[in-house]
Amino acid sequence: MAGSIGALWEVTKRAGDRLVGWDRLVATGKGLFGVAKRLAERIVSPLRRGDGPNKFRLSAMDTATTTYDGDDGWASRPPAVLECPRCGGDIPQHHARDDIDCPHCVAEFSYREFPDLELKHLTCPVCRSEMVHGQRHPESFDIVEWATCNGCRYHWEFKHSYS
Q: What domain of life does the native source organism fall in (predicted)?
């Protein structure tokens, strides 16, 4: 065994700058390690949050989804875009308790009138994409009860009792 290692070493020394023997093995190992490291970074990078000690985004426990991030409760509802019943324009409502004022005409509504207006879509607070939304109990509630972003998998749930 020692003789074969010595012979390999001699071949390596005589080869000069060319990679043969142990050098080739080491270079291949480093290359494979680099590829594996870059692959792992690409897999983990969408999950990284980057602020604070918790480096990963997790869904809200109450939502029981497989999303990366999430919230529940009306106070944390994503920004909404409503249709103005007067001019047909888009009305942004950034927070659930903000008054609803049309930027295109003089229409003004209280936040309590949200269920009476047509919801066009909710905007994802993480990536600003349009969210898919719906109702689970249309016979009990006349407001949106959930929304999911297909871009970043953020999920929001309306929190209510089931009685």
A: Archaea
